[in-house]
Amino acid sequence: MTTNRIAFQGEPGAYSHEACRKARPEMEALPCRTFEDVIEAVRAGKADLAMLPVENSTYGRVADIHHLLPESGLHIIDEAFVRVHISLLALPGTPLTAIREAMSHPVLLGQCRNFLREQGIHGITGADTAGSAKEVAARDNRSLAALAAPLASEIYGLDRLADEIEDRQNNTTRFLLMSREPDHSRRAEEMLTSFVFRVRNIPAALYKAMGGFATNGVNMTKLESYMVDGVFTATQFYADIQGHPEDPAVRRALDELSYFTSMLEILGVYPADPLRKTQEQ
């Protein structure tokens, strides 16, 4: 059964909602309260896909998301890079000179320091970006604005007083699209394989495990470690590599990796987003 829905975390108008529109414009976006709710919506058949942010070019990885990926039972089928463009949103007819305070998530406030200082606007913390826009729309306060995605202005009927006010023009968030079933059938110019693993308790296990990728010429674009169940001695690794598991070099590297690991799980095989090259440059 298909629903033609894609689930995301946050209020309508959030950056995850914008990612849904860009990556799957033909699908209905389903807002969810937490990342766990997003995953459960797909597992329960309420949505076909999950849109999950995993890392930001300025602020690094999204907290807790790497714990959720292997436990979700879902499979990565695509990635999406979304530029974080920030707009100043206010009640219709409000001039920029009337704004005294801007509400948003602390991360977004930190990304607009220069603009806020130049305009003499004081930043105040809101629950999240789209939630702040929703709150501004509900208040009768023309001195209050929200910092949010341009999409939020459309949803909550707010004016965009200024666009692209972020301090860093290359600020980008990477999202993963996940489904109930894996799809290893596609081939593109650049394929990515994501997996998690735990090394065996032997000397230099990680060094030996990584050796197979070097000797086979397989490029590892990401390797991150994180604790499992809050135990310092239980470390799990998340990795992205270029290539498809059926490529001879990748197959050999994964075979060698499996020899030094106590657990190895492929999370997804998918084409690289065309914007990945731009971001790398």
From TrEMBL:
It comes from the Bacteria. Pfam families: PDT. GO terms for biological process: L-phenylalanine biosynthetic process. One of its GO terms (cellular component) is cytoplasm. GO terms for molecular function: prephenate dehydratase activity. The record marks T173 as: Essential for prephenate dehydratase activity. The keyword Ribosomal protein does not apply. Keywords: Amino-acid biosynthesis, Aromatic amino acid biosynthesis, Lyase, Phenylalanine biosynthesis. It catalyses: prephenate + H(+) = 3-phenylpyruvate + CO2 + H2O. Residues 194-271 form the ACT domain. InterPro entries: ACT-like_dom_sf, ACT_dom, Chor_mutase/pphenate_deHydtase, Preph_deHydtase, Preph_deHydtase_CS. Its EC number is 4.2.1.51. The keyword Amino-acid biosynthesis applies. Residues 5-180 form the Prephenate dehydratase domain. Pathway: Amino-acid biosynthesis; L-phenylalanine biosynthesis; phenylpyruvate from prephenate: step 1/1. Gene3D superfamilies: 3.30.70.260, Periplasmic binding protein-like II (3.40.190.10). This is prephenate dehydratase. It comes from Paracoccus methylarcula.
